[in-house]
Queue: 2 jobs
Job 1
Amino acid sequence: MKTYVACIGGKAVLAFRAEGGDRARELIDDQEGGIRSDLTALVGADGKPVWDGKSAIHMREASAAEHAEWEQSRDQAISDEEIDLDAGDDPDEWSIYLTSIPRAK
């Protein structure tokens, strides 16, 4: 597994894990998938959605700093029991937002 980053308009927005670049691209391109759904639910500081549902979502491997941020968030989620290893939750399915934007209400 590797950590990848989804970028919109040149801005890194989401870090997630996938088994290779092809699988990462499939996760982003999945019209019914969680990544696209999550990105449409996020709003920026200006109150507008982060993703308009039409703009290209680019994907790249995460930098060392982005991967470290993902690991730290995942480890905290395990500590906080948001990821329940005893219940069979897969920690590699954890994703994080790389911007300080709230979810839409």
Note: The chain is about 30% helix and 20% strand.
Job 2
Amino acid sequence: MAPRFDVTSGYAPSGAAKIYFESAGTGRNLIFAHAGISDSRMWDPQFESFAERFRVVRYDHRGFGKSKLTDEPYALADDLLNVLRHLSVAKTALVGCSMGGTAAIDFALEHPEMVAALVLVGSGVSGLNDPKELSAEAIKHWIELIGLVQKGDVERAREMDAKYWIDGPSRDAAKVAPVYRDRARELHRENFSIERFTRQEEPLKPPAIGRLCEITAPTLVVIGDSDSEDLLRLAERFAVEIPNARLATISNAAHLPSLEHPDEFNRIVSDFLDSGS
């Protein structure tokens, strides 16, 4: 079926990188930043739906999708800023999943005047790197994953990572819809890169973890009930420490609830944005 809206695509310059984006619709600005296990196509169920009432933009982080990783220091929040400047967006609602949520939080702290509303989906946060703040489950996962990466066992590393994030660390696989799993695994496979493990972005200083109370935008925190223990706990922390934040939990969902349960996700986000946030 042909899309109901004209889609504009292109590349926004950001340092030596070129950040791929797509835009559709008119109205209030709404930007989608994807998770580190996918690319901007994870927002397929949202892109056209929200373009009925918003000017929707989605983009690929550098090193994902059509945006190439370059050999230079970078910050994902700066890439986001450069996409917005390229598209002449002065203020927008931001929806960020996982690492996209981390970038959105950093951006909201650095450019509060540009953020009308913030939606954090299974989001991380900069500065959360103290092993004492991580669960045994997460530490075990990362030690085993890095070990496989160091051995060059890409296939086993990819499979382990996909199981953890797409099915969920402890969810019964029988509860996962095959259509969702197949699509999520396809996006994961196409974006799993060993190279990214050797290149880390420049951290926000001071990091966001101790500055959540400084976020001024109305905030919706969305989490799947089968996501990792650490992100479930972090979502609750966001809801407590970010002023004017509310928490929504989606049942039988792991790290990509927008892709796994799009109708419910779209309703929750739409209600939030329509409420005046």
Note: The mean pLDDT is 94.
